[in-house]
Amino acid sequence: MKLLFLKVGVFSMFSLLILVSDTPFYMKVVFISAMLFFLLPFGNHFFTKERMSRKVFSAVTGAAVFTLLLTLVPSVIFKEISDSPSFFELGLSIIVVAFYAILGFFIYGIPVSLLSDWISGHFSKRLLVAGLVHLTFGMLLIKELSVIPAICAASFWLIDEILQRKRFRTVLNNEGTH
After folding, report:
1. Are residues 79 and 154 in the same domain?
2. Could you give phi then psi for residue 60, rounded to 5 degrees?
């Protein structure tokens, strides 16, 4: 019972912060809906070490890939242009993009991915349903941020599925024995 009160209290506090922010209304609804995920009645079997480690690794990898693509690819493509960024500017932009990418992948991506696991577990075409859930939640943010959230959602989903296929738990078990 204490855990339920704690969950409701934390949810209420973050919802209040979101509601009083300058964020557009539809974004407020999206963020509060994503937070509702944590109020769902999951058993301890859902939050396994393997699943949570895989999600965190997927988020970190997705954020790194996104950061590199967004900052380095334009620099390489436009290197002949005289206004190319200096080393300092490029480093600063990598740090800023990485910070926001990690925030997005951890605060929004991991809960959506866990929700995707929960929803897709009830269907025979789990892979397709999981991809649709990821892309749907990524597309909810498109209005403000172009297609970037959908690309991030797709990359998170692909990385997570590759890790799941490779049986990420064997990697965890092998690390624990050394």
Report:
1. yes
2. -65, -45
Q: Are 73 and 124 in contact (CB under 8 A)?
A: no
Domain count, the chain: 2
DSSP 107: I
State the residue range of the domain holding 6. 1-41
Token readout for 74 is 């334009």
**In terms of domains, do 29 and 59 share one?**
no
pLDDT digits over 48-90, tens only?
788 888 899 999 999 999 888 887 776 666 655 546 567 777 7
Structure tokens at 108: 């929004």
Ranked by mean pLDDT, the top range of 17-21, 56-60, 94-98, 99-103 is 56-60
Measure the CA dihedral 157/158/164/167, to 10°: -160
Give the global pTM: 0.69
CA pair distance 29, 153, nearest whole angstrom:
18
Give the residue carrying structure tokens 């509702």: 36
Cα separation, 50 vs 100, in Å, equals 26
Q: Would you put residue 167 in left (φ > 0), alpha (ψ -120 to 50) or beta?
A: left
What pLDDT is recorded for position 157?
A: 92
